Fold this protein.
Amino acid sequence: MTDLDQLTQSLARNLRRLRTERGFTLDALAARAGVSRGMLIQIEQARTNPSIGTVVKVADALGVSITSLLDFDREPAVKLVPAEQAVRLWSTEAGSHSTLVAGAEAPGPLELWTWRLMPGEGSASDPHPAGTTELVHVTAGVLTLTVDDTDHEVPAGTSATFESNVPHGYRNDGDEPVEMTMAVSVPPPTPPRTPR
């Protein structure tokens, strides 16, 4: 079994488990995540390798980190994540990439990422759930951080924090690679309402 096959199987198993634990029907989760019911069925049956955007939407709708969707091992008090177990979720031929380094549920999902953006490249993100906060620390180059259609230049050595429940994105408008570390904190999910 390849790494991609294992990832697809893990995603299928974890999506079914988490959806059931939270009491979501396929239709309810599809509406909450903004993805089709058919896509959720394909994921739960391990018949597709969804885009990172779809995985993020489903994780946000479930109120869990992406690592919770990709790994079901119960975590010990201290969990070490060797470099070879970090998950590269986005990359381009030019060399830009984002890597999910570690994640935890504390009390909502908390994720740690490393990013590399090559000159002229960028990545846009849909709004996350209300209460989601991102922290970015640039270690090389100058990041152009766009939050709700407003650009902010973040040079090396500078950090930024923002609520990411609005459209946002990261760009490298400079001549050298941008290296950054990012933490994302998502609020815990609200349980679905039951009819009275």
About this structure: The mean pLDDT is 85.
